[in-house]
User: What shape does this take?
Amino acid sequence: MKQELQLLIVAGDPLVRAALASLFDNYPDCQVVGQTSPVTLLSDPAILEESEINLVIWDFGWESADMATVDFQELDKPVLVLITDPLQAQDAWSAGASAIISRDVSAGSLAASALAAAQGLLVVDPDLAAFFLPSPPNQAEKLTEMPTTREIEVLHLMAEGLTNKSIAQQLEISPHTVKYHVNAILGKMNAQSRTEAVVRATRLGLIAL
Assistant: This one.
């Protein structure tokens, strides 16, 4: 029987990769189909096309300064990031992670988070949210321009966790046009990431989750 969730484990330390892979041994809905390092994956994203991978588990490790320039949207797969330091949450957020979880989370919580992230849900460890989620004040005052009807459509699909490529297929427009709309949305929402834009749009009542 085909596994529901097929995972690629990404970590700089091979021991960490092996340990993460072993955590999923007792969860039949999850199957680890590959392991690699961040450097290898970023230099050859085609690795993601070698099997039906539908979620990347990415361990930031203790040294993640180079992760500040990573754009997970370029991978065209949802990414669950495991962090060792709460300060890394901002880098994971800015990179466009679908899930941000502490590395010391239990195996059961990790598996549940992985399944949720693969289904397009935003998963955030409550203890980490304060390090990157915007505070709740009136965000409407910060909107210099309302999103267009098309941008609202894109926002809805972003909230579902769809990538630029998938949004383009859904709306029957080009990925380049989607990227243009996403950049316009980030500017209007005064957001640094897609996830932050979705959060602010939800608080403003522009979309409903």
User: Anything to note?
Assistant: The two ends are 32 Å apart (CA to CA). The CA atoms of residues 152 and 206 lie 7 Å apart. Strands lie at 5-10, 30-36, 55-59, 79-83, 99-102, 123-124.
